[in-house]
Amino acid sequence: MSRLAYQYVVLRCVPRVDREEFVNVGVVLYCQATDYLAAAWHVDRDRLGALDARLDLDQVCDALRFIEGVCAGDERGGEAAAKPLGQRFGFLKAPRSTVIQPGPVHGGMTTDPPRQLEHLLEKLVG
């Protein structure tokens, strides 16, 4: 099996941008060699609620479903979902000051991008 280069960002939920506290809630993985772009996420409602009890957790989940839609290229991702995969990943990894923020871009090698995504989700999000 050949090893494939990939890039990923960890998605962080930042309930109060002014406090700069966050909880990892997802991962977006892009492997250009296999035209693979996908997101996986898990929202720990108790942990996020501890940072800000006023946080609308359903809205957080909606934002993560939007990210899934961008990756999948379907209607959930709006206009961004119609772009080529590399541009979609570029859109998703761009810094923003919203409740869901991407962390820095990291890279690695894998033989199985979908499996690597699940591994990263388990390791970095829980």
Give the topology, please.
Elements: E1 4-13, E2 23-31, E3 36-41, H1 45-51, H2 57-72, H3 85-93, E4 100-102, E5 106-110, H4 113-124
Antiparallel strand pairs: 1-2, 1-4, 1-5, 2-3
Could you explain the architecture of this structure?
- Strands 1, 2, 3, 4 and 5 form a five-stranded antiparallel sheet that branches.
- The protein has four helices and five strands, in the order βββαααββα.
- A hairpin with a 4-residue loop joins β2 (23-31) and β3.
- The protein has 126 residues and is an alpha+beta fold.
- It has one domain.
- The longest helix has 16 residues, at 57-72.
- The chain has helices at 45-51, 57-72, 85-93, 113-124; strands at residues 4-13, 23-31, 36-41, 100-102, 106-110.
Low-confidence stretches: none
Query: Into which percentage range does the β-strand content fall?
Result: 25-35%
Count of separate structural domains: 1
The portion of residues assigned to helices is: 25-40%
- Rg calculated over all Cα atoms: 14 Å
Overall morphology: globular
Count of strand segments: 5
Distance between the termini: 28 Å
User: Which structural class do the helices and strands define?
Assistant: alpha+beta
Protein name: DUF3037 domain-containing protein
InterPro entries: DUF3037 (IPR021398)
Pfam families: DUF3037
Organism: Nocardioides endophyticus
